[in-house]
Specification:
The chain is mainly alpha-helical and 118 residues long. The protein has helices spanning 19-28, 31-38, 45-57, 68-79, 98-101, and strands at residues 85-87, 93-95. The protein has a two-stranded antiparallel ribbon. A hairpin with a 5-residue loop joins strand 1 and strand 2 (93-95). It is globular and about 40 Å long. The N and C termini lie far apart (34 Å).
Length: 118
């Protein structure tokens, strides 16, 4: 459901990247590495496919999309009867749910400025 890497050596699982590791990368100012670890190298399936395609074609890699775990969180909150939305810097309201199912990823405008870079 969450599309996150499997755990354990027997399942060829991924290396755990916990909360303290996230803090360490934030402290070092490695925002790009942190963003890559938490999205493309984790559970952003669409972003990983697009990144691989860009590498093969020799094009620039686009920014990551929404991780599958975020989509699961949105669905759980909607299951509780909560409306999940984001407001961009321009004041545009983005509602999560139906647009994601169609494969459209909403552009939040949360770049690396969120991590203090840029």
């Amino acid at each position: 459901i969450t599309q996150q890497p499997l755990g354990g050596k027997a399942q060829f699982g991924g290396q755990r990247f916990g909360e303290m590791e996230v803090w360490a990368l934030e402290a070092y100012g490695a925002a790009y590495t942190l963003q890559e670890m938490l999205t493309i190298k984790s559970d952003d399936v669409l972003g990983r496919v697009k990144a691989y395609e860009a590498i093969i074609k020799g094009e620039e890699i686009q920014g990551p999309g929404l991780p599958a775990s975020f989509r699961v969180l949105v669905k759980e909150l909607q299951g509780l009867g909560l409306s999940v939305e984001a407001i961009t810097e321009d004041g545009e309201v983005i509602r999560f749910g139906k647009d994601e199912e169609k494969g459209k990823l909403p552009k939040l405008g949360l770049g690396l400025e969120f991590f203090g870079v840029g």
